[in-house]
Amino acid sequence: MFSSEEILADTVFYNVVSPGNVNRNDFQGEVGAFFSNFSGETVVITELGRWVLHGNNQSHTLSVYDLESDVLMGMVEVDCKGVNAGEFVWGRLSTPIEVSPNQVIALMSSERSGGDQWVNAYSSPRLPGGGEFIGKEDIGAFGSATRVEGGELTSTGGWGLTHGHVSFKYSSPVPGWTKEGNVYTTNGEYFQIRSAIEDSSSGDIIGIPEGRFFWDRGISINRPVTLQGAGIGETIIDIGKDATPGWTTTLISLTDGATLKGISFYDSPEAKNNLFSTGAAKDWRVTEVEYVQQGGQGGYFGFIQYSERGLIDNCVITGDAGNAELVFVRGPTNAWDVPNTLGSSNNVFIENCTWNGSGYVCDANSAARVVVRYNTINGGIKVDGHGVWSNGGPQLGVRHMEVYGNRWTKTDGAWPAIEMRGGTGMVFDNAADAENASNMAWFYLTEYGVFNNNGAFYPNFQTPADYPIRDQIGRGMYQTPGDWRTAVGQPMYVWNNLKGGSAWPLSYKVIKEEALNHYRSQTGDENASFGWEDVVRSDRDYFRQVHGGGFDGSSGVGVGTFSEMRAIVPTKVGVGFWVTDKGEWNETNGEMPDGELYRWNGSSWALHYVPYLYPHPGFGPRVPSDPSNLRFK
Description:
By secondary structure, this protein is mainly β. Helices cover about 5% and strands about 40% of the residues. The longest helix has 11 residues, at about 515-525.
């Protein structure tokens, strides 16, 4: 066992990996960097340093200023003469400088035209010319700065850059975590956690103890490790109102293989907080996490951009706004150009979660590939497959969804439960407790373009004359990459969904008169009209089980044993049959068969779909094999 105190003492904030090759000595004034302290602790600076280049032999004043007031906080004189090129020359402050949490300072080196050369760092530190650095980013970040002699401090580049180069040493904060084996134990405060993450390696666990903590800024789990609390209701983090400014910023960002586990998060009632984001990372997991929205703010639980696969499981999520798209998903940008991933691990999974309050379980947005299974939904909260109409980044509809085994318990009010508005998928074995004839728990198979003549459909409403509508229900892979007009037909299959114990009926929205008028113009028939079955058509765009009668293979989806299916010779290509005595994918079902879907291809029944293994097994050795036995107190 060892502790962070054994590692850090008068630590160098930034070390130079490669100095860069764009050198200057044509500036009169000061060059250096801003430093923003986001550690949550006071940073005590003990020494200041300037990088020495070949030929440097002059003295320089290194000064620290408070950025807001431009007040000098401390200074040292360093002499480059006789110092080896390729290292820092350091000067110790007579009195250490204390940088308060959230304070921004400027560390500047005096330079004169025609004097010693210094490294220019306008470009990214990882691009030619600007150099590359390695820093203790658990306490803060640099951003390059200059001051013309007699002028004001000016930012000259993004964070991660420094002119000069300049750096400092600091004596505190010292993180204070301990590590035994692959487990870090922290005090739950922001700095210790960030420091442990920065020190960690693949497969490590960063533990947060029982207790209640306040985080007012974001944190990155930037390696395949687990950030784990003592459990829901045991480790509680209150999110500050300024922690996630903007609709795409989140408290926690996840990289490939990162896991978030065993923590309760409470939104600020004063701000729209967003909990986690993934970018294009894959193999991430959010498990046994509670998220509570407050104040009707409607932020995201998860903001998932372009991810190939990930897992949200065994979480408790409470939405507090009707428009709260609790899990917002965009899929890989090429999802429509490649074969579907139905039944595979290459999807975003939302399973075994409990949903309370209001909002959406998910907005499966542009190119999204989402599986929503075995969730308990206690509020008027819908599962949404978003059509192309308003989607951006890129402008594509949901690619496909698998929605099964979910239960809606709410029995009052008027609200949608399932709304599919594009792509293909499988929707089965869902149940709503509401009475079958009640005006609630609506189930839609619909199309945005009938209601909108803007966005992707500008300038016209969509009608049956436009079939196939862009990325509508029943469309599949583009034969020509990027060209939606070349999409193949790939129907959605819908079966064994119950509302109030009986077949769950489809709901329909009123078609706008503007769309009907456009259809009349298209057809040249002033009396022409159309209904939903003319836009999203059964046995073409989707196949749906019809309850109350026998299945003869002329329409929809049948349910029964393999032998019962084999006895039927359908007359309709594409009809489906859910075989109940085959399939082994649900490990909670013991030795009982779990079911699999067959499709009639015109001459025989062919296996069409088997759900992915349930419960989801996670993503290999990066996820701890049994983290549930760890308790952080």
